[in-house]
C-alpha cells in the first residue's frame, strides 16, 4: 500500500521516468536518432560538410597542398567553371517590340543551350568585338549578335529588372548635402552587412558635384593609371556601365542631364559640357561626369572566378587601381582581417550566382585626420597614421564612410563595385543620440585585428575623451532617456559616464538606433527630410535639427520622440500631437486651442513645418505599433518627396503696404495677400515671401544684368521653373570675369583655315619699308578698288559709331602704302587688314544672306555663318601679323587693338573682345602718361577720341559684366573731351550732315559718364541710408532715386535738337519741341520726303518679317543706340523699386509703387529691338550686354503676371499704353535672343533660361 500510495502521489515523476527510459531505448536501437541527438548536444566532433564545396573556414596556419589536401585530409576546391549567374534573356521579346525588323529577328532567335554558353564564352582577356562572325556568349547568356541588335543605350531597366529612378523634379543642388551615414554596430565583427540597394539612390548628386568632378580630374592628371585603368576584355562592360550611369542621370535628374537625339553626345548642364561619348573611353566619360568610383570585376571562363579588370577610383587609402588591377577577389582583399577565413568562400560563391535584378549596398568606416580623399602608398598623409599628434584637436577628426553598392550588369555579366567617400566631423556626434556611446564601445572593446585594420589608433587619444564627454552630455540633457532597467543595462554611473554595456543593451541598439543612423539619411530625398527652424542661418545648427522621417517607425517603437526631436513640442489634451517649433529649443506643452486641429487621443500627429502644409503623419503611441501601421506611415511619408524644402514659413502678412495712413479713395492700394498655399502643389515661385532665405538679404546694387538673377525671388523662380540653370546661378555671385569665361567656355574659336591667296611683292619700296625688313606680300584679290570699297564701308559705318580713326589719313597714307608696297608685319599692314575685314563685315552684315530662317522670318544676323563671319580671311591675315606690333604703346597700337576687339565683338567672341579692349586701354594709359601730347592738334584730338573709345568700352564691360577696370578712367581730367576740330574730309562732312554722328557720339559719352555716376550714387545713397533692422530693405530711398532720375531728364533736355524725340513716339524720327520740316535732311531717308516721314513711315517698326530699310551712315543704328541707352539708364535707376516689391512688399509706399511703374514703362519697345536696326545685329555695338539685359527685363515682365504686388502695380499704375505694348515688347526681345543664340554664348544661356519661363519649344 505504501508503494502504491507513492505512485499515486508522484505520478508525474513516474511518468517522466517512463518517458526517459523509452527515449533512451529508442536512441540505443536507432542509430540515426542517436547521431542526430548527439550532434545537437555536441557529443561528437564537428561533422563533415555535406556540401560539395570546402569548409567555410580554413585556418591560415593550415596549408592547402597542390592537390587540394589539408593535412592529409581530402578537400574539394571550389569549382565555378560551370556555374553561371541567372540570365535575363527572357526579356528580349519585350525589347524586340520596338526594334527594327533585322534586329527583331536576332532578338527573337531561340536561346542557346548551356553547352554553347560554356563552349563559346566571350574571351576574358581579349578585346570585345561586336563584329565577330561566330557569336560569343557573356556569362549572363547574351550573344554578341544580340548585344549588337540592342544598339546603344538599350532599356537597361528592362534588361536588369531594376527600375529606372523616379525623376527628381524638385531636386535642388544648392541644398543636396552629403548624407551622414553611421554604419556602426555591436558586436563588431567582420561581415559584409549587405542590404538591398534602393534604385533611386544608386548614384547621387550633392552640392559638391562640380568641385568633386574637378578634384577627380586633377587626380587623374597627377596619378594617371593609379586612378583609372582598364585591361583588354573590359570594353563591353565599361561601355555598358557608362551607358547605365548616363541613363540613370538622365532619368533621375532630367533638368540637368540629357542625351542628344543620336545618343552620341551627353549634355551636362551642371558643368556646361557636351561630351562626345563615342570618341573617348567610357571610363573617361564617367570621370568627367560622375563623381563616384567604379571597380569592375569580370568572370574568368577558365575557373569561374572574378577578377578586377577595369576601374576609376579616386578615393582609395593605401592602395590604388594600379596595385590591384588584374587580381582575383581574394588577392584584392588579402589585407582585410578574417576575409579569407570568414568571407572568401561566401563571396566567391555569391559572386558566381549573383542575380542581375538584386543589387545590394553596404558601408565601411574609419576615423581620419582631415578629409583625405586619395592616399596612395607613400603619400605624406600616411605619416599621420603612425603617430598620435600631441596638438591634434577634435575639430580635425572626421568620420570617413565609404558607401558602396554592388550590382551585376545584365549584358556583360560583369559586377560593378560603386563607392563614394563621405566625411563627417566627429563633433557632430555630440547631437546624435547614442552614437558617441556606441562608437566608444567599438573603439574600446572592438576585436584587436579589426581595429588595427581600421587604424583608428592615431586619433583615439583625442576622440575617446571627446566621445565620453558627448555621451555624458546626452544623458544629462535628456537626449538619451533611460528607465531604471535600461540604466542597469547601460551600467551608467552617477556622473553619466558609460562604463560598459551588456549584450542586451547593444542588441537594442542594433535593432533601433544602429539601423536608424545606418540608414540612408537624406537631405532633399523622397523618403526623408531635414527640417530647420525658420530663422536659423547656422549650417551646424541646421544639421542638429535633423528629423529622419525614413526611420520614424524605429524611433517611435523604442524611444520617446523627444530624444530625437528636440524641437518637437507636444500639444493637445493628451500631449499626443507634435508640432515643429521654430522658437523653442526644448519640448514643452502647448495649450489646446480651438484653432488647433482636433486630436485623437489614441494617436499622435506629426505636423511638418508651418501651418500651411497640410501633410500629416499619424503615429500610434500605444505600447507597440503594428507592422501594418508602420507600412501605412511609410506610404504616407513617400508622398512628402521634396515638399519639406518648399514649405513656406510665412510670417503674418499685412493687409496693405506701408504704414497705415489715410489716403484719398481714388488712391490705389497694393495688397500683399496671396492665394492660400496648397500642400498638394509646388510653392508659388512668384509670391512674396517673408522667409529668412528672402528677407535676410537687403538690396545690393549691381548694374550687371546677370547679377539680377541672384535676387532671391528670381532664384526661387528659376530653380523651380528652370532648375537646369543652377550651375550658372552659382557662378553669378563671382566676379564678372568668371561669368564671361564660363559663358564662352565650349565655344569654338574663329577658324584659322580661311586665308587669302598671297604672292611675293615685286616692286619699289620706300626707305621706311626697306628698313623694317621682312618679305612683303600682296593679295591678288585686294585690288585698289576693292581696298577702297572696303575702307569706305568701314568709315561709313563702324567709324561713325566709334570715331577713333582718321579717314583722310588712312585713305591717303595707309591705303596708298599697302597698295603700292604690299603687306608686312608693320602697323600699317595690320591696321589696313583689320579695317578691310570690318568693312567686309559691315557690307555683309547689313545686306548679306541671313544665317538662319525661323518660321519664315530671316535672321537679323547676316553674312557668313555662325562660325565663319564675313571678313574672316582678312582678319586671319591680320592675326598672323599682329604679334609683331604688340609691344608698342602709341596711337596706332591703341587703334589696332581696338579694331581687332570690334571684329571679335561683332562675331560675339566676348572674351576675346574683353582681352583686346584691356590691351587697348593699357596701351592708351601708357601713351597718355608717358608722352607729351599737344591736345589742341588734330592728332591730339584723335588721341582724345581713342581714349574715350577705350573708356566707353571698358566702362561698358564693367557696368554690364562686372569686369575689372584698368584705371584708365583716372586720366579723364588730363585728357578732356574731344572737340572734333580737325579738318574733315568731304566724306566725313557729308556723313555728319546726314547722321549727326559727332552729336550722337558726344551724347553717348555724356550718357555713359552719367550712368557710371548713377551707379556710384546709388551705392553711396545706400551707405547713407540707415536701416532699422537686419531685415530692412537696405536699398536707396525713393527720394534719392528720384533725384538721380531727374539727372537723366536733364541730360535728355540738353540734347541737340537733331537728336531729341517725343516720349510718346520713341520709334519716330527726331521731333524737337518745335517741329518743322526743315529739321530733317533729305538724305536721312532717300525714299521718303520730310512730309512723308511723319505721316506714313516711322523710323523704327516692329514689323520684322519684311526686308529692312537701309539708312545711309547707319543713321537708324545711331539713333536707336542713343535712345535705347537712355531707356536702359532709366530702367536701372528705378530697378531697386522692383527688388523692394518682390522681397519687402509690406514696406512698399505709394512712391515706391510709382517707381516700379516707371521701371516697367521704361522696358517697352527699345528701339534697338525694332527694325531695321535689329535686322543687322553684327553692326550693333555692345553686343555683350543686350541679351542679358533683355533676359532680366523678360523675367520681371513675366513676374508682373504672377507676383501679387507687381501685378497690382501693373494694373493700376502703368497705364493703357503699357498693356498695349508689353506683349509686343516681349516678342521683340525674345526674337533678339533667338536670333543670336546660334552664334552668341551669352544669348544661348539666356535662351535656355527663358525656355522654361515662357514655355518655348526647343527649336525656337
Q: Helix/strand/pairing class, anyone?
A: alpha+beta
Name the shape in a single word: elongated
Largest sheet: 7 strands, antiparallel
| Annotation, overall tally of beta strands | 22
Rounded to an integer, what's the Rg over CA atoms? 39 Å
Provide the helix percentage: 40-55%
Strand order of the largest sheet: 3-10-11-12-8-9-4
- Indicate the proportion of strand residues: 5-15%
Low-confidence stretches: 42-75, 484-696, 1073-1095
Total helices: the number is: 48
The N- to C-terminal Cα distance equals 113 Å
In round numbers, the mean pLDDT is: 74
Region (Disordered): 649-698, 1064-1091
Biased composition (Polar residues): 673-694, 1071-1080
Biased composition (Low complexity): 654-672, 1081-1091
Keywords: Nucleus
How is this structure best described in words?
The chain has 1260 residues and is an alpha+beta fold. The chain contains 48 helices and 22 strands. Strands 3-10-11-12-8-9-4 form a seven-stranded antiparallel β-sheet. A hairpin with a 2-residue loop joins strand 1 and strand 2. Helix 2 crosses helix 3, helix 37 packs across helix 40 and helix 41 runs antiparallel to helix 43. It is elongated.
State the main characteristics.
single chain, 1260 residues
Layout of secondary structure:
Elements: H1 2-9, H2 11-29, H3 31-40, E1 69-70, E2 73-74, H4 92-96, H5 101-107, H6 114-119, H7 144-150, H8 156-160, E3 195-196, H9 209-223, E4 228-230, H10 235-252, E5 257-259, E6 265-268, E7 273-276, H11 282-289, E8 293-299, E9 306-312, H12 321-324, H13 329-332, H14 339-353, E10 360-369, E11 397-408, E12 415-425, H15 435-445, H16 448-454, H17 457-476, H18 484-490, H19 503-511, H20 513-518, E13 529-530, H21 539-544, E14 546-547, H22 552-558, H23 561-564, E15 568-571, E16 577-580, E17 603-607, E18 616-620, H24 627-638, H25 692-695, H26 712-721, H27 726-731, H28 736-744, E19 759-760, H29 767-772, E20 777-778, H30 784-795, H31 798-801, H32 807-821, H33 827-847, E21 853-854, E22 857-858, H34 872-882, H35 891-906, H36 910-930, H37 938-961, H38 972-975, H39 986-995, H40 997-1024, H41 1038-1053, H42 1090-1095, H43 1115-1143, H44 1150-1161, H45 1183-1199, H46 1204-1213, H47 1216-1236, H48 1241-1254
Parallel strand pairs: 16-17
Antiparallel strand pairs: 1-2, 3-10, 4-9, 5-6, 6-7, 8-9, 8-12, 10-11, 11-12, 13-14, 15-16, 17-18, 19-20, 21-22
Helix pairs in contact: 2-3, 5-7, 10-11, 15-17, 30-32, 30-33, 32-33, 33-34, 33-35, 35-36, 35-37, 36-37, 37-40, 40-41, 40-43, 41-43, 43-44, 44-46, 45-47, 45-48, 47-48
